[in-house]
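Sat 14:20. Reprocessing the chain from the morning session after the first attempt stalled halfway. Input below, unchanged.
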Amino acid sequence: MHLTYCSAVDNVLAKLAEAGVPLLRLGRPATVHPALQGHLPGGVHFPDTSVAGLAAIAAGARVVSIPKVLLATCSPHLGSYILAPAF
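Finished this time. Tokens:
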């Protein structure tokens, strides 16, 4: 089976992860590069995928500079939740 990773998003995030920047990768696990699997909800960095766990992730998010950027692939189970916070 051939898998296509979201290379543009994953290339940026892989460099950030290598630099030690805390990050959360959103998207379908099948399309996320294996090196970033631990940064998905449910991965080693964010094991709690309950609503409360996802709310804690959002509440703890830091925006370091402007412009504020969110890199994500389509994630239907998080779609309405992502739109709720004000950036």
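The chain has a mean pLDDT of 75.
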